[in-house]
Each structure stands twice: as structure tokens, then as C-alpha cells.
Amino acid sequence: MIIFPDISPALFSIDVGGFEFALRWYALAYIIGILLGWRLAILATRRSALWPKNLPPIEPLQVEDLLTYVIVGVILGGRLGYVLFYKPAYFVTHPAEILMLWNGGMAFHGGLIGVIVAAFLFYRRNLVPYLSGADLLALCTPVGLLLGRSANFINAELWGRATDLPWGVAFPGVAAQACGQITGLCARHPSQLYEAFLEGFVLLVLLLYMSFRKKALTRPGLITGTFFAGYGIARYLVEFVRQPDLQFQSVENPIGYVFYSDNFGITMGQILSLPMILVGLTLVIRAYIRQAL
Asked: Taking a C-beta distance cutoff of 8 angstroms, is the pair 85, 108 a contact?
């Protein structure tokens, strides 16, 4: 196994009048991901030949305004998604903690819904074609996923199930070392890195190749559909080795399935990924049909 390196969750911290200010790796991942996504969006909108009829959905100067909407959508959607999808019973009895973002707790699927709603409002207000506008956001999203999942690893959170594979990681903490009958150090799948590779790197390379080499942006909805289906498939597969949230585990259900029987089980992450796969495949098929017509 690999012993988890001693990495501080904060890049640095300073004390200002008794108040500690810390720049954490997770926050840094969000900041850099947003900045890189912003630059990629500007690059794509400046190349009119990539878009239908040589018309980008928005002007490069509008990207900053769109970014403001997206940031609000990510934060509100991600937090509310975590509250509703993963710990609704807890937050019903602790409603004040819903606003305590610094304690952690964000859900990608909730953040995605938040971005969709925020982008819809921005696009309707600015008369932007919805599918091409969605393609622009989908093209930029894997950058944030790559950095965010990497930050999850650095924070030693969202680790995977126990494994005896040679690249299994012994994460710190009592919860990470609670591996049933296993005594001593417990090795777990570094599922954060699996997701960073599949949802981030692989999906980013694929979408960049499709957009800048194959002109996939000229087919509205194709990049969005590929992102939805690609992320959904990647997340569905990684869920088989990712440790589920504690509220879904019990003595009778140690795997953490939301629905399970003797021969079948499915996790919350897989449930939320299935609609993404279906919507993604529908958009891909629609894009090719409309192109043919």
C-alpha cells in the first residue's frame, strides 16, 4: 500500500487579530478552475469558425457576466444538492448549518443543477441560443472537475472502498481506517484520483479535441451531450469502488446502497448519474439528426 503523504489541507494560513485566515487547497482548486474555465471560454468565443454560422453564442466580453451567474449557481446548487440528496434528515434538525459552507459539503449534481438554472436565466436575459450556450459551459467544466477531485485527494476525503491492490492508499483518520475485520493500516482505492482522471483529464481532452479539431460546436448540443454522458458513465463506474456516505451504510447494508437486495444494489451517486447519461445520449443523437436534416 501507499502511505498517504503528510499534506496540510491549507496552502498557508495567517493570523489577523486573532482570526485565522487560511487558503485551502480545495478553495484554490475552485479559484484556479474558474479562472482557467474563464480563459477557455474566451478563447472559444473568439474563434467564430467553431460555431454555427460563424456566430459564437456570446461575445468574449460577456463571459465575465456569465461567470458571475455560474459561480452563484455552483455555490447555491452544490450546497443545496448536498443538503437534499445526502443529509436531509440531519439538516432538518440543524438548519443553521446549511449556510456553514466552511464545514464542507458540496454535491456535484446539485452544483450542476444550479449552473443550469443560472445559465438559463443569463441566456434568456441576453437572448443566447440555449444549446450553444450550454456547449460553452460543458467545454469548460472538466477543468474544474480535474482540480476539484485532485483537491479531494489532498484533503484525504471522499476516499474509496478497502482494497488489496498495490496502489491502495492508507488515508489518515479513524473513519478511513475502519475497514471491517482488517487490522492495522487499511488501504483504500484513491477514488478521487480515478475521478480526476476520468471526469477531468479524459473528458477535457475529448471535448477539446471534438471542439477545436472536429468542429463539434457547430452541432448544438453535441458537446453538452458528450459531457453529460461522459461524466455520468465515469461517475457510475467509480461508484463501485468509492466509499459511500455514512448515512447510507449499516450493518445490513455495508456497501452503502440506496436500493439493494441479495443480487442488486445501486448507490446515490449512481442514481443521480443515470439521468445524466440518458439526457447526454439524447442530446448527442439529437445533434447528429439535426445535422443530417
From this structure: no
* Rounded Cα gap, residues 80 and 100, in angstroms: 12
pLDDT tens-digit series, residues 61-82: 999 999 999 999 988 988 888 8
Residue 146, amino acid: L
Q: How far apart are CA 136 and CA 223, in angstroms?
A: 8
> Which of these, 192, 190, 199, 289, lies nearest to 235 by C-alpha position?
199
C-alpha cell at 157: 476525503
Phi, psi of 10 (to 5 degrees): -110, 135
Contacts of 54-60 with CB under 8 Å at 24 or more apart are: 56/132, 57/123, 57/128, 57/129, 57/132, 57/133, 57/135, 57/136, 58/126, 58/128, 58/133, 58/136
pTM: 0.88
pLDDT digits (tens, 9 = 90+) for 88-100: 888 888 888 787 7
